[in-house]
Amino acid sequence: MILDKNLLKENELKEILANISSGNKTWQQEDQTQLVQSMMLHIGSLDSELRDNLIYGSFYELIREKNLLEHSLLTELLEECLNNLLCKGIEERESDLVFTRTFTSLLIALILYRDNVDDFLSEHKINECKDRVLAYLSAETDVRGYVPVKGWAHSVAHMADAIDELVKNPKLNKASYIEVVGTLFNVILQENYAYIHEEDERILVPIFTMLEHGLEEQEIIKLLQELPTALKVKKEQLDVQHHRILVFNCKSFVKSFYIKTNGKPKLAALHKSIEACLDEL
Predict the structure, then answer these.
(1) N or C: which terminus of the chain carries fewer CB neighbours within 10 A?
(2) What is the pTM of this model?
(3) Three-class DSSP category at 256
(4) Nearest to residue 158, comparing CAs of 221, 216, 109?
(5) What residue ranges of the chain have pLDDT lower than 50?
């Protein structure tokens, strides 16, 4: 995407989007190209009202609720997300660029949702998207949830939303499910930050989606059986504080998994395996 030189500044964009949101103006009354490009430019704004409510909220309405953006534009936006924004600043430790990455994840989720409804992306693009988002998730080290003053970063939860839309896509090769669920399990093995903002529950959403769409229970059972051993190995490598964070994250995830599978006859074998994993942890 080649950005126009006359893009809106944050305060200008905020005023226009606020007017549209309140009903004082309509999307059709504005320069839509300039507006969308300006939203992309400021997608990771440190102004949480602009970033969360106005930019993301506007994309949500335009793409998911009202379907007002052309498929060609959505394809272009997806390219911009994957090529330039999703991994922007990922090598930096806890920098503000995390907001660009994580709200790019939410935009990817919206575009994938629209493709699930309208079917405009190619099979190649869907599988490329899978490769990119899994690579991003494996590389992301800034997993902060709520950041004081600046608002939600929530990289793990936002990417779980994108992955959920991805695994619903019939063009995604179902053989990829094993790779996807393995990457999600690796995200749980986090020793630097305690997941206290329901990240575990958000990660479970795409896992249950994959189970509904053909992922074999045995693949998850195998990962659960490997989890206690992985923790024992990590214990030898970590100090007490970081090991406790790791154990907390794993236990929270497995407990949430236990609750979500309880009372579901179709998932009885998986539930039993989760129970065994909890006992070992």
Answers:
(1) C
(2) 0.96
(3) helix
(4) 109
(5) none
